[in-house]
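$ fold --in a.seq
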Amino acid sequence: MTTRKELSEKVETLQNLLVSYSTGGQVTDAEYKQLRTDLLANPTIRDRLPDCVRTCRDLRQFWQFIQPKFPTYRERRTYLWAEFNPILDMLESESRITAPSDDRVTEIPTTIESDAVHVAHITEVSRRDILDYILSRGKPFTGRLETTEFLELVWKECGIFGMHYELERAKQDLWQHTINNYDWDDKYLLYQYFCLLECEDAQFLCFLEKCVHPVVLSKISDIQEFTKEVNNILKYDGYILESRKKISGKPVYKAVKCQKYEYDWDVFICHASEDKERFVEALASKLRGVQVSVWYDDFSLRLGDRLKDKIEEGLARSRFGIVVLSKYFFVKKWPQDELNVLVQRDSFNRKVILPIWLAVDYNDVFTQSPLLAGHVAARAEEGLDTIVEKILTEIGSG
């Protein structure tokens, strides 16, 4: 017996087939006739099928109907979606009532690690924010790949989203509409073609992984920028993209679950006040200039603030702690108290401390703190540009 879910998939396949055919895609008459016969044989949906399906016995008749009535591709797509929406809505609503709510994620092929598929749900708000960011970049989301190459990448590893037909035909459709006619823009592809608002979390995350894969984005700076912006949205839904390995020296990101920490700052700068003018102030300004959110007392404290409370808040709600180690640092109590908080987080969570050595060497640090001497550190003499680049790398992978 055909289930509601199977019926819904057949109806959606028929819809996609007719949309493809009416907009220049390659479709065989046999496919149409078989789907039409199967659906008309089902008494529960026969009368709900669009009139054009019930009356057009083959594709020739369908073309004679739609070609003069709707002269543009856009009009044809809009008409067919409107005709199929009522029956699809009916079938999908009934399927949600009768089918288990968690039986779909396991049906799709995905590269997402098992710990990433859990109870968290990526909201429509987050999805729209991420898609709007991708579109606002002013660059193709397919990177250096052709659209058909990118399709093949996500098709094989992320599942087929809302597309229920063969890869080769999908590639032909994309060529027709993104190269030959160019009537499908990136917004249409993301929202309509890949169905990224409606697809499973696993598919959505896999799609994002492919967007930042080194095969797609060649520049590390582009990969880091993308992951930083996306992670700032995803983290509220319990996911982040995290660097797990490298290919040709470039990071490969995987979607993993995370605690829903609502960090207010990317970094907290722990330092001695004597080091402000000669280094820390310029570092904080440089980081802000590249869109890193910084907790730095000159930026973050306001008249009347309780100093201890605000610093504790900054330490708790910052993803990383930049620790500027100098001779002044080691003789001041306050920055070392801050460091103790960061050390506890570094031990029980993940890497949190990002040390910078300012006019000190290994022996100076080791004498004061053997633990800190074991951390790979940036050195002030490397210059602000190099240090900021290293910090951006850690923020992107953490």
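$ fold --in b.seq
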Amino acid sequence: MAVSLALRILTITAVSCVLAATGARAEHLEFCHKATAAHEAGNYDLSIHYYTRCIGRDDLTAEELAAAYNGRGVAQARKGAFDQAVPDYDEAIRRDPGRADFYNDRGVAHARMGEDELAVGDFGEAIRRDPGLIRAYFNRGHLHRRMGNDDQAVLDYGEAIRRDPAFAEAYYNRGKAHRKTGRYDLAVRDYDEAVRLDPSIALAHDDYTEAIREYPGFAQEYYKRGNTQRRKGNYEQAVRDYAEAVRLNPGHAAAYNVRAWTLYLLGRNEEALEDAERAVALSPKNVYHLGTRGHVMAALDRQKDALATFERAMAVGDPDWIESYQKALKRHGYYKGAIHGEYDPATRAALLACLLVGCRVIE
């Protein structure tokens, strides 16, 4: 996954380099433009053909030729012909040695051929020439991790994250480096952040499992993984994770509450009520726990108890929380008043009307 990401960034670099040269002599750069278009269309053989014809022109500047060589190198790399990509990168660097991204691209090719020391050197040179080239830190981190230099990998991923705090892949891979060195608390923290930033990083869930197995005292990590499973609709798996969280920490009120809500979504309302009662007993003034118990009681046709529970929540909830219920009741068509964050008779009447027909106030 890491290398494919580096190649994806590398491709964008090459295309943008060629496009940047279009303003000087567009009529003489038609082959380069065709190479770029073929590359963007995924036709790398045709891209290589046009880059070769572009390179054959005798009226290009050194910078334009360098961009063309680099573009052809990227197309070769996309085909997996890394041994052919490297000479093109060499020529690009010879003609325009100030381009940090050319070193990064060559580093990726060396890495794919198993030439780790050369790759690390290229990534380092890219960083020296452009300390803001985030992907070079990221790529060098991969190489250090592959070479067993996990502490150095953590530093490189950390620098990538410092420069781009939304870089989910960097958090994910730093988590793997932390886990390998036994820093499980830091590992799961990074996995959490990676999934928060990009829930599609499915592999992070496998590492959650491994980290939890290796450091089984982490009730909080079962709780967090349960939340991830619940958001993905994997309710049964979420229930199992919440069960492990409360086994390890019987005072984990939030885990009881979200397990209650998940059981409620599954229609297992008697079980849900048991958990909701535990959550409220542990945290009597938590409006979210009270809200869960109210919903479950309504599902069990205990509307009077449900209303009393919601009114307990309204009594301790702040205006923002009450507003969220007013907005929900308005969406359901029961509340016609203003959204003002006060639990007034109109809000109470709307809440009761919703409960009497079994509507779910908060989705």
